[in-house]
Amino acid sequence: MRRTVRGIPAVHGIPAPHRARRSRAALGTLTAAGTLLALLLPTGPAAATGQDSPSHRSPAPRTAAFWTAERMRAAVPLDLTAPAKHAPVTTVPRSAPLKVGPTLPAAPKASSATPLLPGTLPQAGGPWAGGGAVTKTTGRVFFTYQGRTAACSGDAVTSGNKSTVLTAGHCVKLGGAWHTDWIFVPGYHDGEAPYGKWAAAKTLSTPQWTASEDINYDVGAAVVAPLDGKKLTDVVGGQGLSFNSGYSKAMYAFGFPAAAPYDGSKLIYCSGTAFKDPLFSGDHGLACNMTGGSSGGPWFTTFDEKTGTGLQSSVNSFGYQFWPNTMFGPYFGDDAKNLYTTAQSS
Predict the structure, then answer these.
(1) Are 296 and 304 in contact (CB under 8 A)?
(2) Going by C-beta distance under 8 Å and a sequence separation of 6 or more, which residues neighbour residue 260?
(3) What's the whole-model pTM score?
């Protein structure tokens, strides 16, 4: 049986299946936390691109009402085919490192020390029992894709508009179409939305993902509408960010995998020292057994286990079928930084 991956549910309507078959013969199947090995086209920094979500044209309460507990539980990860060709690995444009601190109202400030909880580093996959801010800022993402309900993961981050969620590019747009009925449910647990269902007013991605679904730029964002007169990070707080921070760092990855052996009901994490993908991308790699549905979940550097705060520096993106129990996430370079800047200014 083909291994299902971490993001979006299985896609059988991707155009040109014969090209996918040639790709699998040449490269092996790339499974993605909803995505695949995209064309690796060398490109430079560019402005983020996006769309006003249908939830911007329809009342946000209507979008939230669509996502009943039953629909959220039933949203399944999709399996994606690989593109036909592989271009030389892209070097993601980067400049000086940039760090943005977390903003967590009514929560203690992150300490300079990072006391470890028993068995947390390294960890190849298991329920997060450490508590802290990450249990509120991380959540599930739900949307409609090709007429079916699907799920990813996402994270609320510090932002000027207090309304920005980061996720994977394929969790906002795939196969030439932007997803609809898009919501973010922070702190999700088994059909429950303890901090509300936040409908997207706008979804965005890097120009490289928007144009060609280049796996090196699989980063997406959403600007969510206020809920009950409040803004997202005023309710759940926002994690910090780190751009151009280099490779081979200690990383913590979080998400809501929904494919076996997981069921999407709990926050799962992995931790360890990341490495640079030696194969077909310039992504970070991490030993991790998260499965479909975890796409878009945050990767943190300088993560404080005591407070559950950190600096987000990647997202769950994809895994190779022939390399089990390993997750890959895009390098947060200049284009990811531009995406964040555009989203928080929206």
Answers:
(1) no
(2) 291
(3) 0.79
- Full strand arrangement of the beta sheet holding 98-100: 98-100, 240-243, 309-315, 298-304, 250-255, 268-273, 123-127
Q: State how far the alpha carbon of 53 is from the alpha carbons of 144, 175, 203, in Å.
A: 12, 17, 6
Angstrom CA distances, 201 to 126, 221, 250, 266, 326, stand at 33, 11, 34, 27, 33
What are the pLDDT digits (tens) for 162-202?
Answer: 999 999 999 999 988 999 999 999 999 989 999 999 999 99
Per-residue pLDDT reduced to its tens digit, 37-49: 332 223 334 555 5
The DSSP secondary-structure symbol of 239 reads: B
Give the phi and the psi of residue 96 in degrees, each rounded to 5: -65, 145
Q: Give yes or no for a contact between 5 and 292, defined as CB atoms under 8 angstroms apart.
A: yes
CA nearest to 171, candidates 30, 307, 32, 320: 32
- SS3 category, 49: strand
